[in-house]
Amino acid sequence: MMNKIILTITFFIAATTLNAQYEIDRSSAPKPGKAPEINIGSPASFVLENGLKVFVVENHKLPKVSFQLSIDKDPKLETGHVGLSSMMGDMLSAGTTTKTKQQIDEEIDFIGASISTFSSGIYASCLSKHKEKVLEIASDILLNPAFPEQELEKKKKRLMSSLKSVKTDANSISSRVGGVLKYGKNHPYGEVQTSSDIDGITVELCKEYYKTYFRPNISYLVIVGDIDVEESKALVENYFGSWEKAEVPIHKYSNPEKVEGVRVAFVDKPGAVQSLISVMYPIDYKIGAQDNAKVSVMSNIFGGAFSSYLNANLREDKGYTYGARGRISPDKIIGQFNASASVRNEVTDSSISEFLAEMNHIKNEPVSDEDLNRIKNNMNGDFALSLERSQTIARFALNVVRFNLPQDYYQTYLSRLQSVSKEDVQAAAKKYIDPDNCIILVVGNKEVAESLKKFDSDGEIEFYDINGDIEKEEKTPLPEGLTAQQVINDYLLAITGKENLDDVKKVYKKLKGIKSVMNGAISQGGQEFSMTFTTYQKAPNSFKMEINAMGMVVQKEVFNGSTGGSMNMQTGKQDLSAEEIAKKKITSALDKELRYKELGYQLELMAIEKVNDVPTYKVAITNPFNSVSYAYFDVDSKLKVSEMKIETSSSGESATVIQYFSDYQSSKYLKYPNKVVVENNGQEIELNVSSVEYNPKFSSDEFSW
């Protein structure tokens, strides 16, 4: 019903010739030289009486200034209303006791500034001549938030819409389930947000969270740009001096248990043409750890850099993926190892073998001088470039205080980096890389799951839903003797209300055409757009579909039995090719489900599978052009509850489109689903039928092209 629209930039770098009397050996990476002395200036700093710690980095090159307020609070379990802290942060800028959200937005826009609020603070930037006005607005947002009910309901509605798209996005699924597997649901890093959590977020909870955690005595204000220290002191005292301090709760959590053996976990994503593989486990590795430089070099050689072991193997050598990455990440509470890649279904097991092989490679074999030197050179360069930004100086100073780092932690970074040896890299790998005790999470098509049992220490795969809950695999055998054709026949009897196929044929003989109108809305960029889908079908095989949005036709498809085409606002008008016309003559037949065999379709009854907890018969339907779709029929009602197919765009990219049918209504001719939910390319749209007409009077040019 909805086609995926696919929207490359190339560049060329010229090389210069070298002096003929001096040649550089380019067969290997240059050896790192002696680490240069780094003189990182310290920002000016001061503390208000209420405990707010302020850092100022002066930079008068441009007339700009930024303010970053950070609340250094511990993560907190949000059971029953997961996402509360994020919602509270978003609601800070939704209006104050003196101004509405619209008034705040207008004031910010008028001076060309920007202000953003988060669960952990506020960021503002502006031209230096507007700094006092921006601080006035930011102070009002911080000290007088109103948390208006109507704004909360709007944000909850948008959040609900975003949550619906999670089940179609492999990365979102992997992140949610991966958190549960690594940390458990009783850890703030393992909590999963559901619709009931969103429902549970209230204005009162937002206010309580704000009053508890937004306190100056655990906060830092970083000021960078065209401003001096004395002016900063005066402004900060004026706009934040009245912010009241209070005792803030401290939250401590036990470290997750070490993974014992290899656990293979799987989340089924029906129709997926790729598997998202993630190898992961938590590790006790804090920010500023003593072996940080050694671990960082090892991590980049293994999977952090484009030239890493992982990417060179899975992308460059095997061609399994467009990119594979892996790294060890430190954290204030608990660090983690994570390596991942999206690969084709047919190479899922082979890819996992290569992940584990590269983990053993970095752990058991010394790295080459070339790899070591290249990565250290890259890291040197990245660090040097970062020092060109004033924000880096401020961030370094803030990190030293927040994470209790040595005062010379960043000044000595390059010397510590340069001293890392091959032996150090292998020692770090032996300490943190553990292919024998890890979690392998795969999000993809269930059909590949059986081939992954060999990796699990117990030989059993754990199946999870998108919320990280165990799914018990209940295999119900198909009734003996039941065929796919019988399932289709039962469906036809159910939608016509007849008791035999002869009467079904009579219904379709009387049915000359159908017109249906469905309404829905799609969310994009935080905004909701209403859409109307109108479909026209006329016997034997004429078809038209129009999508209207914002008062205009944005997409249209037409086939009149002999010719046709498509149109959308981005690609324009395209005629059907001779091959496409031949296909449409078959696939657009109004009564094709009644004549599958006659039209050359092949049917196969696959299994009994649950769709939204409803047991269904899964039928593979292969058209005469070898395109396969899957239809799911309720075991009890016999009605179709879902349909899945893989659509290929003109650029050759594939996308799985799933439709869910519910709330069937009776009519003179056929039962029809009053509600259709379409999942396509990470988007979900719910369509509700506003009208269905049988045997309407079509105009003579209704299907013209």
Keywords:
705 residues, alpha+beta, Cytochrome Bc1 Complex, Chain A, domain 1, outer membrane lipoprotein receptor (LolB), chain A, 3 domains, 25 strands
Written description of the protein model:
With 705 residues, this protein is of the alpha+beta class. The chain folds into 3 domains: 44-164 and 192-240, 2-Layer Sandwich (Cytochrome Bc1 Complex, Chain A, domain 1), CATH 3.30.830; 262-464, Cytochrome Bc1 Complex, Chain A, domain 1 (2-Layer Sandwich); 484-694, Lipoprotein localisation LolA/LolB/LppX (outer membrane lipoprotein receptor (LolB), chain A), CATH 2.50.20. The chain has 19 helices and 25 strands. The chain has a 13-stranded antiparallel beta sheet with strand order 18-17-16-15-14-13-25-24-23-22-21-20-19. Strands 1-2-6-3-5-4 form a 6-stranded mixed beta sheet, with helices on both faces. A 6-stranded mixed beta sheet has the order 9-10-8-11-7-12, sandwiched between helices. Strand 15 and strand 16 form a beta hairpin. It is globular and about 90 Å long. It starts with 43 loop residues before the first strand and ends in an 11-residue tail after the last strand. The model is unreliable at 1-26 (pLDDT under 50).
